[in-house]
Amino acid sequence: MSRLMTRRNAALLLFSGFALLPFVATMLGDSYLVVIATRILGFAIAALALDLILGYGGMVSFGHAAYVGIGAYSVAILSRAGITDLGAHLLAGIAGAVLFALVTGAISLRTRGIYFIMITLAFAQMAFFFFVSLSAYGGDDGVTLRARSTLLGRPLLEDDRTLYYVTLAILVALYLLAVAITRSRFGRVLTGARENPVRMQAIGFSPFRYQLTAFVISGAMASVAGVMLANQTGFVSPAFMNWHVSGELVVMVVLGGIGNLLGAVAGATIALLLEEWLGLLTEHWRLLFGLILVVIVLASRDGVSGLFRRRDRP
Amino acid sequence: MTSLFLLQLLNGVQFGILLFLIAAGLTLVFGIMDFVNLAHGVIYMVGAYLAVSFTQMTGSYGLGLLLTLPATLLIGLVLELLVFRRLYDRPHLDQVLATFGLVMIVTEGVQIIWGAAPLSVAMPEALSGSIPLIGQMRYPVFRLVVIGAGLATALGLYLIIGHTRIGMRLRAGATSRAMVSALGVDIHKLFTVIFAFGAMLAGFAGAMVAPILTVDPGMGEQVLILAFVVIVIGGIGSVRGAFAGALLVGIVDTMGRSFGPILLRLVMEPAAAGQAGRVLAPMLVYILMAAILAARPTGLFGQKT
């Protein structure tokens, strides 16, 4: 119980920090801060989505960038069709992601371990190539959005701060939803299926159905991240689905600590701030980022996941 | 039409052979060590860059290619000793993260050393011509050489794995790592050998395509993911499966791109067919993978688990 209290306090602290950030930015006179922070919140949503299946379901999806991309493209496609409402964009993104997750998840979940990692990666790459060859939407070059999504029929999100707070509100809502999911009976079954699928089956649960449902929920959440990120950058291209993005999402989840939701938000913050900071030092920041990553993994004795998970692996 | 078909078939085979060289090392590492290596693609890329540099240094593509082999073997050895060795007993997630970090390091490192602009290397004079196949159709000699070299490598692998002592250990290791180790085989030495050898094969593939493709920092990623598809189709750990899968993927991908729009034109308007063909063709190999997985979750030649 006390552990739950600390997590609730940590969440309160982290989210109020985010809520106060625009005021700090105004005081410092640094409006770029809000732009970066919006990006962080967007990725935090995607990392949260990934943590739900990676941390609680033990499914290492290496293709979550596809869902971010699906969300981003739903903004581009609907905007061009004249539908600018944020709610419609979110719904379209979620619908697309649910469909993609249902089909690819049903196939991927027939396999385990290395196969699962490679297959989710391959399907994400398929989505990547689909949008690369979609010349109506700029193909490889992508499309620039003429305007951000509208809220209640008005261009409220054009203000960077409003976009920031809307993204934050969505993140908090999804975080609470994710916490509720993991504490529900459904979440318990999911964790049980991670620890011992055979035993779960023996007591009358079909792990596949629970895992697929979780996979679909996670994909839908990641597409929400895509909608918000597309609004933040004002530009949509297949780069949203690049496998590097999938990799970075996994890095974020692991950096923040696997299987505790809030960690995913913290991980996204750490990873993106690290990128920004290293980017200031050198244009070859990826080299340093990669080095840090390798060193962290090698230095953790029981494995990165063992660092944070209390249970020992079998 | 027939000659175009044959031409594209040969291109497909050539692409498949290339994928095989990359997938062969990767599938052994996956199957025997149960190790996810995302960094295999960058070794292929480094092989291509080294071939460019060595060719410029020596003035001969042949010598450049020959020098690339020990160089990539050495890179494989160093990587194994420094990084991979510590990861074999770790969860897959750790392996994914560490090798993903390596991909970032090497990709950026290559851009620091060779720059971000694409490079190319001149084809050797003797192989730059083309020979007639049937009728009017001619085919570049160099691509035939690539096919030949790949087939020779496949045959060599088949002989090594099926008919030598080290091959026997390798097959035994794929079946039961613990048992082989208990019988007194130094399994870590075996891993090092397999790893370095796989790196050399990837480097060989990179060096061979350097004259026909442009050498750029993104070249490793595309083939890496296609090599994954190949391995998933063929079954993890099976070199024979990798061979079959690689040819299948190479041919389906190449043929799909050239004949997809033509076939769609039979049932659609030309403009729509062209558009649909362009969109569908790159997705074809993934659909193929999904179909095979739906029927056989462990791949064509995979062992039942």
Q: Describe it for me?
A:
Chain A has helices at about 1-30, 30-55, 65-80, 85-110, 115-130, 160-185, 185-195, 195-200, 205-235, 245-255, 260-280, 285-300, 305-310, and strands spanning about 145, 235. Chain A is mainly α. Chain A has one domain: Orthogonal Bundle (ABC transporter involved in vitamin B12 uptake, BtuC). Chain A has a two-stranded antiparallel ribbon with strand order 1-2. The longest helix of chain A is centred in the N-terminal third of the chain and has 27 residues, at about 1-30. Chain A starts with a helix and ends in a 6-residue tail after the last helix. By secondary structure, chain B is mostly helical. Chain B has one domain (about 1-295): ABC transporter involved in vitamin B12 uptake, BtuC, CATH 1.10.3470. In chain B, about 75% of the residues lie in helices and about 0% in strands. Chain B has 12 helices and 2 strands, in the order ααααββαααααααα. In chain B, α2 (about 40-60) crosses α8 and α9 packs parallel to α12. The longest helix of chain B is centred in the N-terminal third of the chain and has 32 residues, at about 1-35. The radius of gyration of chain B is 20 Å and the shape is globular. The chains are: A mainly alpha (about 325), B mainly alpha (about 300). The interface between A and B is large, with 50 and 48 residues.
Q: CATH fold name of chain A, please?
A: ABC transporter involved in vitamin B12 uptake, BtuC
Q: How many helices of chain A does DSSP assign? A: 13
For the CA atoms, what is the radius of gyration of chain A? Answer: 19 Å
Q: Kindly name the structural category of chain A.
A: mainly alpha
Topology:
The complex is a heterodimer of chains A (314) and B (305).
Chain A: H1 2-28, H2 32-55, H3 65-80, H4 86-108, H5 113-132, E1 143-144, H6 160-183, H7 185-195, H8 197-202, H9 207-233, E2 235-236, H10 243-256, H11 262-281, H12 285-299, H13 304-308
Antiparallel strand pairs in A: 1-2
Helix pairs in contact in A: 1-2, 1-6, 2-6, 2-9, 2-10, 2-11, 3-4, 3-5, 3-9, 4-9, 6-7, 6-9, 7-9, 10-11, 11-12
Chain B: H1 2-33, H2 40-58, H3 61-82, H4 92-114, E1 130-132, E2 138-140, H5 141-163, H6 165-175, H7 177-182, H8 187-209, H9 219-234, H10 239-264, H11 270-280, H12 284-295
Antiparallel strand pairs in B: 1-2
Helix pairs in contact in B: 1-5, 1-6, 1-8, 1-9, 1-10, 2-3, 2-4, 2-8, 2-9, 3-8, 5-6, 9-10, 9-12, 10-11
